């Protein structure tokens, strides 16, 4: 007999220890209190323990009515022998989990959000096996982190819970959803999870939400990404626990404007949301705001594709702004897309979801997407300047995370290269932009490979056979006779290097073309050094020699000046608008750069010709123009200038009034990016933009720029 044969969990072990150590009867209430269980959970674990003991021919705990449970002397002796073995001690020690302060705080927030009865200091101390003071400190940190939000945490005789704006509570949880989903997974794995949260009801709600979303897909002829479904089912299941406990939204929580609700109620998704809530037993007339809320979540969820039918006014407006964003990006970055039609289709699908996220305060907040800002700063900067048409449509600015998501689509297409090599199946649970960026990054890392997909996890699970040589996925998958390699959606250089090494060590990279170089290098090294680890050296050399392309757009390096270094007293001008049209305004704005030798006359003519040819694309924001042309058209040295007019003038037509005309003279693709990024941050902030427009002299503009640089 061994402890492994018992296969008891941590909590079952603790329950048995109570019965072994106590000579008197133990009531259900006493055991529940010692283990921080509910009575129901105590009965569950007692039943489980009894079955395992009987299976191992040990008398189970006996229950004397009115007294409680006890173990016979023989059972205690048998269990003490089993539990004293090193084998069992090692297993038990391995099962114990130490939670970090961050993990404890995340799980505590989940329990409060899910209205668990276990959010008391004493019970949490027992769950995490820490002192009461540690839990008190955890609550102090949680409260400090919530100071900027419209709700707080209070402690009562029955435990801690959220109080305040219910919409703010839900938004906070949604903003940190990725972090909380990880915490939720930890909760699932805890032995007493069923006691901590009503997981039975929670799991049933998840199944109902998933089935409903698939029904919505069928009825709307649209398709959600795997990530969208996973996020929705987990988040909204917890929201439903709150709704069923009467923590509901008051009227007009989503939008103060009547028009916004009329728009929602006119859509078929409103009826779908109402039917779902009514099926659960929620009065949709009394809690109509909850119908609107569910509908807004549905519309905000990331789509893979949408039905071409029912081309509403909103869809037409989003389509139009999407085309404008792409055109702005093309002109700013001087870029061409090999498959612009595909880009328009993919970005439109994304922007439609983005529209509803912005309109109903569900903007994406996961900071993971900001890796695009770090790894591809030029793409991110051009994107942030290009999105003005969409921000005008929604009347709200996009946050950095939403801009990052849009930048991913441009990055995916800019990095696109046709190639042939081994066959890779790409599985991605995110939206189209992230999938395409990863696909094209892989094509850049491994030129010549055949890339299949991207497909969703649902698609992968339905495949009976995988014909590709290897599977690369952004989420863990069950292998189907082919190796699965899990990567991040946007890989940094270290991760790319590690992926190359894995391909080499697994013989997935064909290194025949570098055999001669490899052999020669190995010969030289062997002749001059003592090789300690031959395999590691071989893989390292092959990895270096296989780097035909860098996955990032190459940086030219060199110094990138701040905006304050380019815009100064010499390059900032003020002028009356009388007698000026847009052509004269551009010439005047560019004069300081011409006088300083930054540009030639040909560059000014090229900027004007660009507008005549391509339209008012340089109107990048409210009353803002950014005139520029290609470096080869007459740029001698990097420079920037701005002209502030006392009144707006028309850029080609009255639909594009401009009052601030910036001129950018870039000498390459990189050196101006820091200054341009600073400018984008100012233009994306309505209050700062208004200060620019209201500026009376150059010192006002310089002060505004310097204040922004001080905050970086």
TrEMBL record:
* Transmembrane regions: 106-128
Q: Which residues form the PTS EIIB type-2 domain?
A: 422-511
Pfam families in UniProt:
PRD, PTS_EIIA_2
- PTS EIIA type-2 domain location, by residue? 565-708
Q: Which GO terms describe its molecular function?
A: protein-N(PI)-phosphohistidine-sugar phosphotransferase activity
- Keyword annotations from UniProtKB, A to Z: Membrane, Repeat, Transferase, Transmembrane, Transmembrane helix
Q: Name one GO biological process term.
A: phosphoenolpyruvate-dependent sugar phosphotransferase system
Which stretches make up the PRD domain?
Answer: 313-420
Q: What is this protein called?
A: PTS system EIIA component
């Amino acid at each position: 007999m061994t402890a492994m044969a018992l296969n008891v969990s941590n909590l079952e072990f603790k329950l048995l220890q109570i019965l072994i150590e106590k000579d008197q009867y133990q009531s259900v209430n006493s055991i529940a209190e010692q283990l921080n269980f509910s009575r129901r959970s105590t009965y569950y674990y007692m039943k489980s323990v009894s079955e395992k003991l009987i299976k191992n021919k040990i008398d189970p705990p006996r229950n004397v009515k009115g007294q409680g449970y006890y173990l016979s002397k023989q059972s205690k002796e048998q269990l003490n022998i089993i539990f004293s073995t090193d084998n069992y001690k090692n297993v038990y020690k391995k099962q114990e989990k130490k939670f970090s302060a961050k993990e404890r705080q995340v799980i505590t927030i989940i329990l409060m959000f899910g209205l668990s009865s276990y959010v008391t200091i004493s019970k949490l101390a027992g769950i995490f096996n820490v002192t009461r003071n540690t839990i008190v400190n955890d609550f102090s940190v949680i409260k400090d982190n919530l100071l900027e939000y419209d709700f707080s945490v209070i402690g009562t005789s029955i435990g801690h819970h959220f109080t305040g704006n219910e919409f703010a509570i839900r938004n906070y949880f949604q903003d940190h959803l990725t972090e909380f989903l990880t915490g939720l997974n930890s909760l699932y794995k805890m032995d007493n999870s069923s006691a901590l949260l009503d997981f039975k009801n929670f799991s049933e709600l998840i199944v109902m939400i998933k089935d409903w979303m698939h029904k919505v897909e069928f009825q709307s002829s649209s398709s959600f990404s795997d990530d969208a479904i996973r996020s929705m089912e987990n988040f909204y299941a917890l929201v439903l626990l709150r709704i069923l406990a009467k923590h509901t939204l008051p009227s007009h929580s989503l939008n103060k404007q009547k028009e916004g609700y009329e728009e929602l109620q006119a859509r078929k998704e409103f009826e779908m949301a109402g039917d779902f809530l009514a099926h659960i037993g929620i009065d949709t007339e009394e809690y109509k705001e909850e119908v609107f809320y569910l509908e807004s979540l549905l519309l905000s969820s990331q789509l893979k594709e949408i039905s071409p039918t029912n081309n509403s006014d909103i869809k037409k407006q989003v389509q139009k702004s999407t085309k404008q964003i792409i055109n702005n990006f093309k002109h700013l970055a001087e870029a061409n897309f090999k498959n612009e039609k595909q880009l328009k289709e993919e970005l439109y699908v994304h922007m439609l979801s983005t529209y509803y996220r912005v309109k109903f305060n569900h903007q994406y907040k996961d900071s993971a997407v900001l890796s695009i800002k770090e790894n591809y700063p030029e793409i991110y900067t051009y994107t942030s300047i290009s999105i003005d048409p969409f921000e005008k449509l929604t009347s709200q600015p996009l946050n950095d995370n939403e801009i990052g998501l849009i930048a991913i689509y441009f990055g995916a297409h800019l990095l696109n290269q046709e190639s042939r090599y081994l066959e890779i199946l790409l599985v991605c649970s995110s939206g189209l932009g992230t999938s395409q960026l990863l696909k094209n990054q892989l094509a850049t890392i491994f030129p010549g490979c055949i890339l299949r997909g991207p497909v969703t996890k649902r698609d992968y699970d339905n495949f009976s056979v995988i014909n590709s040589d290897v599977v690369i996925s952004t989420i863990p998958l069950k292998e189907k006779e082919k190796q699965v390699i899990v990567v991040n959606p946007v890989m940094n250089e270290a991760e790319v290097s590690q992926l190359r090494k894995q391909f080499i060590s697994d013989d997935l990279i064909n290194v025949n073309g570098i055999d001669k170089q490899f052999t020669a290098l190995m010969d030289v090294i062997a002749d001059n050094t003592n090789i300690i680890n031959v395999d590691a050296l071989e893989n390292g050399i092959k990895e270096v020699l296989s780097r035909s392309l860098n996955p990032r757009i190459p940086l030219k390096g060199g110094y990138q000046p701040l905006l304050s270094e380019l815009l100064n007293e010499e390059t900032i001008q003020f002028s009356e608008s009388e007698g000026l049209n847009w052509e004269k305004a551009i010439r005047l704005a560019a004069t300081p750069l011409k006088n300083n030798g930054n540009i030639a006359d040909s560059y000014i003519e090229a900027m004007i010709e660009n507008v005549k040819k391509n339209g008012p694309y340089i109107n990048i924001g409210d009353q803002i123009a950014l005139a520029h042309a290609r470096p080869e058209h007459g740029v001698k040295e990097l420079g920037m200038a701005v002209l502030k007019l006392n009144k707006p003038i028309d850029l080609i037509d009255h639909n594009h009034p401009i009052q601030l005309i910036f001129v950018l003279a870039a000498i390459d693709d990189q050196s101006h990016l820091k200054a341009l990024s600073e400018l984008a941050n100012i233009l994306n902030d309505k209050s700062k933009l208004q200060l620019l427009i209201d500026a009376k002299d150059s010192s006002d503009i310089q002060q505004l720029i310097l204040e922004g640089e001080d905050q970086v």
